[in-house]
UniProtKB/TrEMBL annotation:
It comes from the Archaea. Pfam families: Bac_luciferase (PF00296). CDD domains: Tetrahydromethanopterin_reductase (cd01097). Residues 10-301 form the Luciferase-like domain. Keywords: Oxidoreductase. The keyword Oxidoreductase applies. This is N5,N10-methylenetetrahydromethanopterin reductase-related protein. GO terms for molecular function: oxidoreductase activity, acting on paired donors, with incorporation or reduction of molecular oxygen. SUPFAM superfamilies: Bacterial luciferase-like (SSF51679). PANTHER family: 5,10-METHYLENETETRAHYDROMETHANOPTERIN REDUCTASE, PTHR43244.
Length: 325
């Protein structure tokens, strides 16, 4: 079985950890983007310090930039890194799009569909016009002075719901699920397969790069506490998304308890062991490595491991060492 492994550094911007990941053999490093530093800014910095590791945006939302701006940023990163750029896109959620960007969160999947097509057009220099619901550029190519290193940069979609996963199968090179209950994964893979078949593709052509929450510590209690804090923050801060997926997997009581808790601390205490066991790898380093193999056997092509939010550099270093290919 393949030992392909990637790592998400989320909001952390530490070139020394990126270099360590490359030295340990990780296939790619992923930079998150929310309401602070840009993923592209971090990846440009990391490119200077590395030679071969893939550099992925994980995830940039399709509301925050036009397709032309995104394609230009990706092509620039690809040139500066000698062809190592990877695009992780997503529709985000109203909390980011409406509250932070001040834009209406309308028809996100249609927007994503147009967005992916246009990004590909810009990268390959297709100069024809495009008439869409959201974007209607008269020309979809860069100036002659700028020619992308690659006409095709891999595009992954961060999708959770059935329609979005099916769209991923139709138009994307890869799928990035996050905090997905393990016992629901096979059903989600069937949605991906349906989308791929609609586009005349084989589902095996779509790289499944799952974000895998990992909480590794010699003290299992400490590991579970960190993982529970992470899960609770996602359920409380991104209402209606991760909670919906978990509820559909039979974890509705857990979701309600976490979200209705009066404080974040109280919400963390409501995250059950059963919940964690279905969405995360938690435990000692030795046990954690075995659990990652189970993730691969489930049908994940590229596990993208990540440490819980808020942990220190030493914890992330331990994560890198534990799951090194």
């Amino acid at each position: 079985m393949s030992d392909r492994t990637a790592v998400l550094f989320a909001l952390r911007d530490d070139p020394s950890l990126v270099v360590r990941a490359e030295d340990l053999g990780y296939e790619s490093v992923w930079a998150a983007e929310g309401q602070g530093k840009t993923a592209f800014g971090k990846l440009e910095r990391w490119a200077v310090h590395t030679d071969s590791v893939g550099l992925a945006t994980g995830i940039v939302n399709v509301f925050g930039r036009t397709p032309a701006t995104l394609a230009a940023a990706a092509a620039t990163l690809d040139e500066h890194s000698d062809g190592r750029a990877i695009l992780g896109l997503g529709v985000a959620h109203p909390g980011v799009v409406e509250t932070f960007h001040g834009l209406p969160f309308e028809r996100p999947l249609l927007r994503l569909h147009e967005y992916v097509e246009l990004v590909r057009r810009y990268l390959c220099g297709d100069a024809s016009s495009f008439e869409g619901e959201f974007y209607s550029p008269e020309r979809t190519s860069f100036w002659d002075a700028f020619e992308p290193v690659r006409e095709e940069i891999p595009i992954y979609n961060g999708a959770l719901g059935p329609s979005n996963v099916r769209l991923t199968g139709q138009v994307a090179d890869g799928w990035v699920p996050n905090l997905y209950p393990s016992d629901r994964f096979e059903e989600a893979k069937s949605w991906l397969r349906t989308g791929a078949e609609r586009a005349g593709r084989n589902v095996s052509d779509v790289d499944v790069a799952m974000y895998v929450l990992t909480s590794v510590h010699e003290d299992p209690t400490v590991a579970r506490r960190a993982a529970a804090e992470h899960v609770a923050s996602y359920l409380r801060d991104v209402p209606g998304y991760y909670g919906r997926v978990a509820a559909e997997a039979g974890l509705e009581d857990d979701v309600t308890a976490v979200c209705d808790a009066p404080t974040a601390e109280a919400g963390t205490k409501e995250v059950s062991d059963a919940f964690l066991d279905r969405v995360a790898i938690v435990g000692t380093p030795a046990a954690a490595r075995d659990s990652l193999e189970a993730i691969r056997e489930m049908g994940v092509d590229l596990p993208v491991v990540r440490a819980p939010g808020g942990v220190d550099a030493a914890w992330i270093e331990r994560t890198l060492e534990t799951f090194a290919p």
